[in-house]
User: Fold Arginine decarboxylase from Cinchona calisaya.
Amino acid sequence: AALYKIDGWGAPYFTVNSSGSISVRPYGADTLSHQEIDLVKVVKKASDPKSTGGLGLQLPLIVRFPDVLKNRLESLQSAFEYAVQSHCYEGHYQGVYPVKCNQDRFVVEDIVKFGAPFRFGLETGSKPELLLAMSCLCNGSPDALLVCNGFKDCEYISLALLARKLCLNTVIVLEQEEEVDLVIDISKKMGVRPVIGVRAKLRTKHSGHFGSTSGEKGKFGLTTTQILRVVKKLGVSGMLDCLQLLHFHIGSQIPSTALLADGVGEAAQIYCELVRLGACMKVIDIGGGLGIDYDGSKSANSDVSVGYTLQEYASAVVEAVRFVCTSKGIKHPVLCSESGRAIVSHHSILIFEAVSATSHETTPQVPSPGLQYFVESLTVEGRADYRNLYSAAIRGENETCLLFADKLKQRCVDQFKEGSLGIEQLAAVDGFCEFVSKAIGAYDPVHTYHINLSIFTSIPDFWAIGQLFPIVPIHRLDEKPVVKGILSDLTCDSDGKINKFIGGVSSLLLHQLEGNCGGRGYYLGMFLGGAYEQALGGFHNLFGGPSVVHVLQSDGLHSFAVTRAVPGQSSADVLRVMQHEPELMFETLKHRVEEFLPQDHDNGMTNASLANCLAQYFNNMPYLVATSSCCLTA
Ligand code: PLP
Assistant:
């Protein structure tokens, strides 16, 4: 646990149990009874047809814990409630979940259900997101906010107004100045009094990776001049009372409460000015940005960590708004936040398998008469490098030794390219140089673990923006890992590898794979990836989404049940995404079988059984299967 810093990034949800596996504590720190679910047992249960309605799910697997989601929501709510009380704040906190972080139906439905007691709402950034939010909030609290952000056309605005007509507490947040004209016009035509918000482009700038949305040149929001023009237009149209919410978002992963308080303070000043100008302001919406400590370092100077707790975050917000509004004599507004990452990251774990491992290690060659013969076929310069290398090794000058080893290797490659060195001799020099670096203790092989996963589909932020997530074996944690490894995925793409891990290291200490050909059954987990990864993943090489299980605690300290099991996308599913028609493709191939193959085959197969196998290929997931389950060779 210490090696992988699990206590740092994992607390209070993930811990190592006495069998050396990772256990999940679904209720986090609130658990009095220390209920724990062993992740390896979850993998076993998910692959067991008896526990999954006959499905027997294949890896990669996303394991979702709705109870963790509930705990995150409740922790956020109680952090704000505590801050409101302790700062004598006169408004309340009422958050919304930005559905773009993970639009999965059950994630959104769970958030609406768990958040209903404290009026938790949803935030959307597009028309389909609005449609899903509208239907989900029909089962939520009637006071829950439905915040409509994003670029809007007349369809988006009409739909948001329809939502208001349907008594959903909808706010249209203006992101662009032109949107105000559409809102005024369409709301009049539809006979709906809208509730309007305005997104301010703050001067406060967040310097981290996610800060490009902030500052005067940020992509979104209205400048002060534009806000003033909007206020004027609404006033002229007799709709200034509709302006009720001020929104801003200075970027995800806000690193420190100092920066947060700075931004919130600036926004609170704008809020007070809008009140002074006659708007009927009620809510200040501070956007997202509540960060996650991915590496457990609690650092305010890193993109993968944050220097505050949930409680410190909530207190900084409450204090900053209270200070400004109290000094201006303005009624304390309702506080809304749009935390996505902080709500959904912990609840889902991606589990995948390392199927084989290779090292670039060759069999080191001890100097021998054969080597002497090889040395004689080198050029004069090559022989000089060899002699220099040899004498540096005898003198124990390690640096010089490595320098000449590199030189010698390069010279031999050049000679090989020219055609004056054979392949055996090239291999001999590699082995010899490796022998020397091992002998002087400078040899540090890194193994490549091949993982049954697509990084483009399942960890797209690593590929796209270098986002690091904790990746650790979920078992054998009572055994010392001795192999340095990087992870290489299934795609035919050199970017499909993970060679940077939390702590900034370029390899991960892993366990040796068991079994003859590497063996199966070494499971790794990618944690804290519940936000964004599923929503952003692509279809590179047509690898589709992983299987998903939902796991709930059942009676007993360590008992659990798989309450929902969904197989990952089949090959047919992903082909359909690219406009192929799997049914037609199957018919074409079946026809081809009948046309080209005899009725009976040498291996006892028939054309009908071949066609069945083909059908199975369409129905199976695109990921690797064990050799024994391949129907053409079974
Ligand atoms: N609100 C808006 C407008 C955003 O753009 C984002 C994401 O960048 C969020 C909320 C969610 O932010 P986070 O995941 O940091 O909570």
